[in-house]
Amino acid sequence: MTMTTPLRCAVVGVGYLGRFHAQKYAALPEAQLVAVCDPREEQGQAVAQELKVPWLANYRELVGKVDAVTVAATTSAHFEIAKYFLENGIHVHVEKPMTSTSVEGEELCQLAERKNLKLQVGHIERFNPAFVAAREKLKRPLFIECHRLAPFKPRGFDVSVVLDLMIHDLDVILSLVNSPPVGVTAVGTPVITNAIDIANARVEFASGTVANITASRVSQKSERKFRVFQGSQYLSLDFGAGEIRVLTKTGEWGGDKLPLEQEVWSLEKGDALLAETAAFVKSVREDLPCVVTGRDGLVALKLAEQVERDIRERLGRVESR
Predict the structure, then answer these.
(1) Disulfide check for 6: which of 32, 33, 258, 265 has CB 3.0–4.6 Å away?
(2) 55: domain CATH number?
(3) Residue 63: pLDDT band by 50, 70, 90 thresholds?
(4) Would 152 be classed as within a structural domain?
(5) Same domain, 173 and 308
(6) Would the pTM of this model clear 0.90, i.e. be above it?
């Protein structure tokens, strides 16, 4: 049944990313930001004052006051917080990775399904205008190559680079290929933190598609590029710049001129987080499936775990020499 009143929302965890989530709720006429919640008083009060809403230290106080929440706390806290709200009949949008382990993710999915609640996972690249435009061209990917590189930033290191950055591309790839992975080989190493800071994975799918994915959070530059090869066509997507470049074979080669047609689009970057938040609000208010479901997030998390497992095993063999 479609709601006729604004969706009462709150954000739990208003650090760097959570603050932006709260701003998006405040900007949507279909939503009412009821409160922000963070155990750190100074941080919570700062965001609350900016958006002119109450601050709460304890997320349990939100029950009875909200219809839906966004969980943007540290990854290790996602499961406990999201589970509490689902148990209390509240729809949940949880940042990626949805939980620390796929066992926890499975429990959240089953709980949401049992209670008929929305569980959306924050894989924001699905809402990137460049990806939304490009996916119409991506019918049968054969080979995919991704580079997601970022300079070191002193936050988000409660997980490895696989769960921090690479999982974005794993989710995008899974949404395009629509086929189960059948083989994973990966390599990675700590550089600055004690977790894996740079990683490369090769994933083979039952459909025959192969993906080569590199992620680093210790690079000298930022890069978010995604390249796809399919029959008679090559597509390059720059998530950061919003540029799409497509080369398509138009005939047989038989002379000096190559039978290739090039298309280039430069799109406005848009506001992917606003689009993601609006999609969640719409799914709850109109009882529609989430664009990125809990099950989508779980599949990406399971693949990320496979990548991490192969990296650890490889590191173990190297260290035992």
Answers:
(1) 32
(2) 3.40.50.720
(3) very high
(4) yes
(5) yes
(6) yes
